[in-house]
What we know:
Shape: globular
Distance between the termini: 19 Å
Largest sheet: 4 strands, mixed
Strand order of the largest sheet: 2-1-3-4
Order of helices and strands: EHEHEEHHHHHH
Number of helices: 8
Number of strands: 4
Amino acid sequence: MPTAALKLATKDSEGTNQQEIQFVTNTWCPFAQKAWIALEASHCQYKMREVSLYGAGGKPDWFWELNPKGTVPVVVVKEGDKKIVLDDSEYILEAVMDGRIKGDGRMLIDMERDEEVRQITQWRNIISKQLIPIGKAAVLGGSRTKLQSLLKELDSMVIGPYLTGEKFTVADAAAFPFFWRLDKEYGLGKDGTQKLHAWLERCLQDEAVRKTITSQGWWWWW
């Protein structure tokens, strides 16, 4: 899992940190959605700029200059004379979790609390390394047996009401777009996935999550 190491420490003349945050995204993309949820849940102030990822016009030049990989999401954080570009959804989650993206503190995690950090990291790793590839294989016509087995295993890990307990964390932000899409395809809440379904319904009560579900539609992750 990538970890951004850059730190922001510049302060203005009054001694308060002033951040300008730009969120470059496409609202149909699940990787962008997980970053969007984290930004919304943190209550940070940001400006959104949406780019089209496909079509005759292609991606604009300014976007290629910002992120030569050509992927969304990208977050640009300016603070005084410092600027960082976070060009991966996992970098963005890290910055929300450790406070480099400044919000109201809801999403901050004490990085010295080993068990909490371990649980959040475990969920993020499972989503990236297991759920995403196994879910893709199932939806594209492969066997659903492996996906069903994984979902049952993950269901047993849900503490409730959120994945790691009482607090909504970046683990929930990372997981929601992918479980939500699988729920649309197969339906959660049966075959040993009741806890996952309850968690999904709890997330849907959160305004930060609901705001990221747009009427225009959504993509899978390929």
